[in-house]
C-alpha cells in the first residue's frame, strides 16, 4: 500500500507523521471518506467541496487547490491499483508545539490520502437488516462543535458507538440537543411512512451526508415524496421502513429500533429499491481513473 503524505508516497509502514501534529494532539483537522466503484470515484467534487467548507470554518488553510487535491486522490488510486476503494482524505493543522494555539503550526497543514478497503457492518446485515438503539450521548450542539464540520474530533460519535456496542448493537441513534433524532455515529437515518420518505433536516445536529443527498435525489426522480423533517423516536418506532446511509455503510436496512420491530421485521420494499438504484448509480457515475 502506498500512502500519500504532503506530495510524496510512502509504504504503509513508513507512512508516519510527527507526534507534534495538532491532528493527533487535538483532533485539529478535517477529513472525508470517499468510495470508488469499478474505477469511478463517486461524488468526488462534492466530497472535496465539503472538505474545503469544513476547513474554511475551522480556519485551516489547505495548501492545495481543489483541482490539485482531486489530482492527488486520482494519483493515489492509480499508485495503489485499486478498482474498488475507500479513500480517507485527511488535512490536519500540521506540526506545532504543546499548546493548542493553531498559529504555532505556521500554516504547515498535513495532507494525507489513504486508499484502502472498508467494511463497516457484516455483509449479512445488508440482507437481514440492523437492530439499532438510542444512546445517552447526544450529538454535538451546532453552536459548540457543528456536526456539519467533518473534523478529526470524533469522540462524540465514538462515545455513542461504545454505548451501542455495550448494549450488543452495531449502531447507535444519536439525538440532538432537543431530543429529536439526529443521526447515527457515521450514517444518516431515514424512515418510510405510507410511501413517504423522511430524514432529519441538516440544521439540527446532523451532517449533510453526500449519500443522504444522493438518496433524496434518487427518491425525487422516482417520484417518492421526500421530507426533511424533525423526527422523534416514536416516529421511528411506528415507521414502515427504516435505513441508514453513508459513504462507508452505503444503504443498510434497519429492522429493529430500541427493541421495537420496524414494519414486517424485514428490509422494506422501498429500501430495497433505493439500494438497487443507488448501486446502479455508483456503477455508472463518477470521475474515472
Ligand atoms: N454522519 C456522520 C456523523 C458521518 O461521519 C455520515 C453521516 C454520512 O455522510 P456521507 O457523506 O458519507 O454520506 C458520516 C460519514 C465509520 C465512518 O467508520 C463513517 C463516516 C466517516 C468516517 C468513518 O463509521 N461517515
How would you sum up this structure, described in words?
- This protein has helices at residues 22-26, 44-57, 66-80, 124-128, 155-166, 210-221, 233-237, 269-284; strands at 2-5, 8-11, 29-37, 40-41, 85-92, 110-116, 130-134, 171-175, 181-184, 188-193, 196-199, 226-228, 241-246, 250-257, 260-261, 287-288.
- It is an alpha+beta fold.
- It has 2 domains: 2-116, Aminotransferase class 4, branched-chain amino acid transferase, N-terminal domain (D-amino Acid Aminotransferase, Chain A, domain 1), CATH 3.30.470; 124-282, Alpha-Beta Barrel (D-amino Acid Aminotransferase, Chain A, domain 2), CATH 3.20.10.10.
- Strands 7, 8, 9, 10, 11, 12, 13, 14 and 15 form a 9-stranded mixed beta sheet that branches. Strands 2-1-6-5-3-4-16 form a 7-stranded antiparallel beta sheet.
- Helix 5 (155-166) links the parallel strand 7 and strand 8 (171-175).
- It is globular.
- The structure holds 3-[O-phosphonopyridoxyl]--amino-benzoic acid (PXG).
- The site of 3-[O-phosphonopyridoxyl]--amino-benzoic acid (PXG) has 16 residues, from helix 6 and strand 13.
Helix content: 25-40%
What is the domain total for the residues? 2
Q: What is the CA–CA distance across the termini?
A: 17 Å
Cofactors, ions and other ligands in the entry: 3-[O-phosphonopyridoxyl]--amino-benzoic acid
Task: Characterize the overall form.
Answer: globular
DSSP helix count?
8
Poorly predicted regions? none
Question: How many strands appear in the DSSP assignment?
Answer: 16
CATH class term of the largest domain: Alpha Beta
* Mean pLDDT rating: 97
* CATH structural fold name of the largest domain: D-amino Acid Aminotransferase, Chain A, domain 2
The profile of the biggest β sheet is: 9 strands, mixed
Kindly provide the radius of gyration, computed on alpha-carbon positions and rounded to a whole number of angstroms: 19 Å
What's the CATH architecture of the largest domain? Answer: Alpha-Beta Barrel
Structural class: alpha+beta
Range of strand content: 25-35%
Q: Could you state the CATH homologous superfamily of the largest domain?
A: D-amino Acid Aminotransferase, subunit A, domain 2
H/E order of the elements?
Answer: EEHEEHHEEHEHEEEEHEHEEEHE
